[in-house]
Every structure is written in structure tokens, then in C-alpha cells.
Amino acid sequence: MPRFYVPRPRFEKGMLRVEGSEVRHIRRVLRLRAGDEIVIFDGSGKEYHGLIVDEGVTFVLIKVDSISSSKKESPLEITLAQSLLKGEKMDLLIQKATELGVKKIIPFFSIRSVPLAEKTKNQKRHHRWEKIVIEASKQCGRGIIPEITLAQGYSEMLQTVSSNSLRLILWEKEGDRLKDILGSHKGKKEVFFIVGPEGGLAQEEVAQAKEKGFLPISFGERILRSETASLCLLSILQYEWGDIG
Fold this sequence. Notes:
This protein starts with a strand and ends with a helix. Helix 2 links the parallel strand 7 and strand 8. By secondary structure, it is an alpha/beta fold. The chain has seven helices and 14 strands.
């Protein structure tokens, strides 16, 4: 059944009224009409199931039959702090991380990451990331839209870490085996992990993270690309403690 994102659903005479960009998607792209079934989700966990009863150029009216809470969110709260990647790699990473159930993504500047100096460019890219997160959530059936922040400095990113989370940092030069770390921290439901850029994190950045309680981990002898490492760790965490498998 087609799903559409309406962040603040508005009811008009008992009908849910959809306006904005989703109207074009409903009417022009999928060509849905009165009598067709539809699902609206608000991004905070609620889903509205119903039938289209009326539609126009700028609106669609839906008779809601039931309201439910999304059951497709992972019990594991994962924050991914990802150093900025080149070109479309960041877009792909954000899309796939959303599908894998990440709760929050924090893009950050590191010593060796791609510079994004202009504030306007940063905001423009962030707007595109938000669209990617929404579309990925619609596609995979999530009811809660993951949060994605503006790109920020490394030190600023470290200040956002929760004291209750298991804090991990991927570093190819040093680190305990992931299997050992997960075995000794069973029961954790909140994980914050850092993945560096294609050139790797600088030693001083790792030292700064250690001061904040981060545990360096390694995936072994093979060197993975940054985006591969992020999605690999996210998948493993969801398999071990989350809702995959």
C-alpha cells in the first residue's frame, strides 16, 4: 500500500487533509483517485490508514479508518557520526543507514575529510540529506524519520554523546575485536559510533575520542572503505542487539 509523509497531519471536518509536495506524488505520479487505499505517516511513529474521498490540484482528502503506531522501528538507538564523504557516497550512505534503522546521523568535518567551508553549501546539502532520509523511510516502511544534523566540527560532534551509550570509534591502526566488545557490553540499547573519512582519522582525533570514553575497534586485516565500514557495523549491531535476523 502506498505510504506518504505528512509531518503534521491536519484534519478538516473529520477528514485528513494532505497538501504540499505529496499531493503531486499522490495524483500525478501514482495516479491515485477517490476510493484508493492510502497510508499517511507523520514521522514520529503514527500511521493513518484510510481511503481517498476527494482530491484536487492542491489537496487530497482522506477518510481515516484506523490510526496505529509503527512497529518497524528497531529497539536499538544507534547514532552514526560519519566524516563527510566525497560526491554521492554520502547520499548513498544516508539512504542505506536509514533502511538499516539508524536513529540519528551526524556528519562531521575531520582533519582529512572533504572541506565544506561555505555555510550556504552546508545548508543546501543538509536539505538534500533530509529528503533522502524521508524517501528512504517511505520506501522501507519506517514510521519515525531519523534525525540528520548539519555537518559540524569534530569537537562539536563529541559534545553530543550521551553518557548512557556504548561509544565506539573505528580505527584501522588499533582496536579491540568488535566481537569481544559486544560480548562484554550485552544489554546496551544505545550505541554511538564514529567512522572517519577515506584517509582515516588522525591519531589526535582518536585520542580526543578516547577522552570521551570511546573504545577503538577494528574489523580485522582488510581495510574497508568508510561507507562500507559504517554500514557493516550498523548491520552487525542490528543483528546482535536490534531487529535484524
